Amino acid sequence: MNKKIIATAAFLGMIAIILGAFGAHALKKVLSVEELVTFETGVRYQMYHAFFLFFVATRKELSQKTHKVIYNLTVAGVILFSGSIYLLATNSLTSFDFKIIGFVTPIGGLLLILAWSVLFVKILKQKS
After folding, report:
1. Residue 24 Cα distances to 32, 62, 91, angstroms
2. Half-sphere exposure in the Cβ direction for 96 (13 Å, CA)
3. Which burial class, exposed, middle or buried, applies to 126 when counting CB atoms under 10 A from its CB (0-12, 13-18, 19+)?
4. From first to last of its 128 residues, what are the pLDDT tens digits of the chain?
5. d(CA 115, CA 128)
6. Within a 13 Å sphere around the CA of 82, how many CA atoms are in the beta-carbon half?
7. SS (H, E, C) 46-92
């Protein structure tokens, strides 16, 4: 499981860097300042959670089940939260109105909060 978590963290980090560079260079010419700031928010949260997964993978005191729960919540959260932000920020570039999927952004955010909450509770419950 740890290899999978680390590989996913590396992949999410790599994609965040690629999307950040894409936003800073290619999208800068076609998006408004507000849309760019929104896009960068998606990149930033994706990178935060790539680091979070690296951290979780190093926690030997967590069970495999806990690793799996945190991993699944984080991956789903990043896809829904950052993914929907990318689509909403670039909405003006397509003929499809991505605003109809805007409801998934807070669901993704909730999943990310739950992932952090699982870690928090498991660490608090540990015996010293």
Report:
1. 12, 38, 17
2. 8
3. exposed
4. 789 999 999 999 999 999 999 999 999 889 899 999 999 999 999 999 999 999 999 999 999 999 999 999 999 999 999 999 999 999 888 888 888 888 999 999 999 999 999 999 999 998 76
5. 22
6. 24
7. HHHHHHHHHHHHHCCCCCHHHHHHHHHHHHHHHHHHHHHHHHHHCHH
